[in-house]
Amino acid sequence: MVLAEACLSELIQAHFKTDACEIAVIVFIHTHSRNGNYNFYLHVILTESAFFPSN
Q1: Which of 15, 21, 22, 46 would staple 50 via disulfide (CB 3.0–4.6 Å)?
Q2: Do 25 and 1 meet the contact criterion of CB atoms below 8 Å apart?
């Protein structure tokens, strides 16, 4: 989950061409499918923009 947040943060910082921005992201693990089989993946909720603390 930490790696998913780090990758998204790096991608958004590259988009804005600055490392001074922060993102708001929620990442959680989904471990099973509807029928009970093990099916590991991550859900990611990401805000629409970035936060610039200096502004």
Answers
A1: 21
A2: no
Using pLDDT thresholds of 50, 70 and 90, give the confidence band for residue 46.
Answer: confident
Is pTM, for the whole model, over 0.85?
no
The SS3 assignment for 25 reads strand
Helix, strand or coil for residue 14? helix
Question: How is the chain split into domains, by residue range?
Answer: 2-46
Sole residue written with tokens 């099916």: 39
Q: How confident is the model at residue 43 (pLDDT cuts 50, 70, 90)?
A: very high
What whole-number distance in Å separates Cα of residue 12 and Cα of residue 32? 30
| 34-43 contact pairs (CB < 8 A, 24+) | 42/1, 42/4
